[in-house]
Amino acid sequence: MGNGEPGGGKQPDGSDADAGHSSEQGGGETDDPVPGRKIRRLHEVATAMQTAAAVEEIYELTVDAAVDILGFDWCAVEIATEGRFEVAAVSEEAPLEVGARPITTDHGVTGEVYMNGESDILCDARNHARAEPTLEAFRSGLTVPIGDRGIFQGISSEPYFFDEDDLELAELLITHTTAALDRVEETQRLNKLNRATRQLMTAETHEAVAREGRDIASAVLNAPLAVVFYHDEGLLVPMVATATASEVLEGPTPIEQPDDGSGESPRWAAMAQGETVRDTAVDDDRWELLNVPLGEQGVLCVGSRVQGAFGGGDVVLAETLAANIEAAFTRADREQRRREQARQLQRQNERLDRFASIVSHDLRNPLHIASTRAALAREEPDGEHVEAIQNALDRMETIIDDTLSLARQGKTVEETESVSLSKVAARSWDQVDTAGASLEIVSDATVQADADRLQNVFENL
After folding, report:
1. Smallest Cα–Cα separation from 304: which of 319, 293, 289, 283?
2. Interval 372-413: pLDDT, tens
3. Which fold has domain 2-185?
4. pTM of the predicted structure, to 2 decimals
5. How many angstroms separate the most distant Cα atoms in the chain?
6. Based on CB atoms within 10 Å of each CB, which residue in 167, 209, 216, 376 is the most buried?
7. Is 277 left (phi over 0), alpha (psi -120 to 50) or beta?
8. Which residues lie closer than 8 Å to 339 by C-beta, 6 or more apart?
9. Is 2-185's fold the same as 189-336's?
10. Fold of the domain built from segment(s) 189-336
11. How far apart are CA 269 and CA 277, in angstroms?
């Protein structure tokens, strides 16, 4: 298959079809078996893959290694996308293009390899019951699954081109590819989590924190099932849940704390143990669940219908997210207290403003009387103005004392007495500037009141 020509593999009689496929050109290492050199070169490729920053770069390195080291001139990496295989990287000689979606993920032998997770060699497409080649030129193939991501495939225009040695080397290459993809995707998910955490930390209420936490869990952990339970007086109360979680967990409904603190509830067990607890749930599918404690604040529950979906890296991400949600809950509590303190301070300031306004208004009448009588006293030293001034000053002192008492004790009248309305009216009339008007009292009545506060009311009429 080197240089774009068909070659290599085993014929039906077991003989080599092309020695060029099983040995490297030049090099001069005649005492070193070819497979050993290829393995070492594949390990060098693995080192390069571990420095790659993007999955696209890893796919290209995979195809380049298959061409340069394994001699697969026609090869491609195809990723499962929306039920079809999409070409992510392809060799120059192959009759495919990046971005093409030639077949569905259940198509022929390729689909079986992807679904079963087991590599396969197709010796002759024309004599295979399940083979469904998309081009007449495709006679033999080698297919290796790349986890649940997709497949790597080598194709030849000659039958019996690939043998077990090719398959073993291809599987080694894809092992390196998978490890590199895991690393890059883990880094990308961690970066995504870090970016999302900044948004999480701006949430100002428990409800907002729970919503952000649910959405992050669903996106970063690829978990269609996600619930945030909040701990409230012996109950784990589901604050928010994805639509899938509502269906699978039937609500979900609040969970009462068992007598032993955990009992049969994996959610409570996670809180009691302070560590992640795995669980399963069953509807039409069997769901794998992770229950991650949020300190004493509650539990984050995430789930996938793919068994084994949550590996060690997923658990680390889930626990990191849970720690961030717990911190966000604590911050929301602190912000709630701060906002309440700010509201109390605002209310106090408003009361002080009203207090100042009341004091200013109530003092204005006796102060005006005192000022007027003082001016008259200078003109008529022997008049009754001094007594009027003293009465006005006494009234001002009473108003100040009453207002201070009101400020200290609040607005409630604690003690009342029988008060004559006519007497209160007369005293109030004496404390205001009447501008030549007169007061006529034609009847009287008695009420239960605080005399000084009632007089304030009359003075301000």
Report:
1. 289
2. 777 777 777 666 777 777 777 777 777 777 776 666 555 555
3. Beta-Lactamase (3.30.450)
4. 0.59
5. 146
6. 209
7. beta
8. 204
9. yes
10. Beta-Lactamase (3.30.450)
11. 7
